[in-house]
Each structure stands twice: as structure tokens, then as C-alpha cells.
Amino acid sequence: MTACRRCPRLVQWREQVAREKRASFAAEQYWGKPVPAFGDPDARIVVLGLAPAAHGGNRTGRIFTGDRSGDWLFAALWRAGLANQPESVSRDDGLRLRDCWVTASVRCAPPANRPTPAERDNCGDWLDRELALLPRARVIVCLGGFAWDAVLRRLRPPRPWPKFGHGEEFATGALTLVGCYHVSQQNTFTGRLTEPMLDAVFARARELAGGTLE
Question: Tell me, what DSSP letter sits at residue 111?
Fold first, then answer.
């Protein structure tokens, strides 16, 4: 997956960002490739985001690592007992997830954080393969409507499909989707998503997955 070049627009952008860099990270070597998922291969809870941040995952090479969205996400996973520490700053920072797998609908950083439907569908094969390698998965926490729609398009349950909403739940086969507002600054800075709201989502995900961590 890290060698994928299916989407010319995303390839051009991720590599441009890796060359030009942000001034505060000028001394760092950017990853600049599709960003792998991260977590426990025996996970019952999957967290599905939108795409790597240009100066987060696209820089560090680990999903949700090195940006404000990741600060919120991993702190919540730590409070829920799904992570061994509350922050993620680099691939070698010692972070470990327990019973949780974190991934994204699109694996390359998109311009303006807006992947196209075609780019979502191009990346869908990777999500299919990933879910097939997570046989114990029972819950997918969808961070935002884009992720909600992306996974429904891969699972293809009978229509009509439910609309995304924070706290929305939808069971299909062995999996239950749980909607959650994305942990972007657009939501966390405005109070649309609060820490108690995020904690409630992961408490519910644990309950749906079977409660006790294994």
C-alpha cells in the first residue's frame, strides 16, 4: 500500500508537501507516501478517519500522529483504556494500542483535507483487505460522514443506508458502525465535539465490542 500511486492528484500533493515542508518541521524528513494503519491486529474496535494530515501523518508516517486531531484521538483512546499513553508524536514514541486499530478512508494527504469520491473509491480496496485481516473486529467508529459513507460503500448492506450522525449506530453482519464527529480542530475548537462526547463514543464502542478488554 505504501507504494500506491493510483491517484495522481494525491501523489503530487503529498510529495510537494514533503519537499516544501512547514517551516517548523524544516529539519525533518517527511514520509510523503501513503500512510499505513496502526494498532492491535486482534482489535475488536476499528477507528476509521478521513485521511492523513499534510503535516501530521504525511510527515511522521503514522496515521493521526503529530497533529492536533491525533492529540484528541489518542488522549481519548488512552482514557478508554485502548492506548498505553495519551499522545502520539512520532512512529517511535512507544505508543501501543490495545483492542483497537486506527486507519483512514484515504491513505494519502489530500489538498485542503478534501479527497474526491474517486480517490475514496480507489483507496477502498485497501480498506477491504485491511478489514479481512481483522477477523475479530466488531465495531467501526467512523470519524465523520466521509468515513461513514466510505465504509458503507465497502460493506454494501441492503439499502436504504442510514445517514451519518454523532452517536448514530448501524449493525450490518458482524459489525456495528458508530458515528462520531471528526476530531478535527474545526469541531474541537468550536465545541461541536467535546471530550465527554468523544469518551461516550468509545465507552459505547467497548460495550458493543463485548465490554472487557482482552
Answer: G
124 contact partners, CB below 8 Å, separation of at least 6 = 150, 153, 154
Q: In this structure, is residue 1 part of a structural domain?
A: no
Question: How many residues are there in the chain?
Answer: 214
Strands 100-104 and 38-39 come out as: antiparallel
Single out the residue of 78, 98, 80 nearest to residue 199, CA to CA.
80
Start-to-end CA span in the chain (Å)? 29
Beta partners for 104? 49
CA distances from 188 to 68, 176, 185 (A): 9, 25, 5
Q: What is the pLDDT of residues 55-108, one digit of tens each?
A: 999 999 999 999 999 999 999 999 999 999 999 999 999 999 999 999 999 999
pLDDT at residue 212 in the model: 65
Give the pTM.
Answer: 0.96
CATH value at residue 61: 3.40.470.10
| Residue 132: inside a domain | yes
Q: Which residues, at least 6 apart from 28, have a Cβ–Cβ distance to it below 8 Å?
A: 21, 59
- Range of the structural domain that residue 76 is part of: 8-209
> What confidence tens digit (pLDDT) does each residue in 154-182 have?
999 999 999 999 999 999 999 999 999 99
- Tell me the average pLDDT of the chain: 96
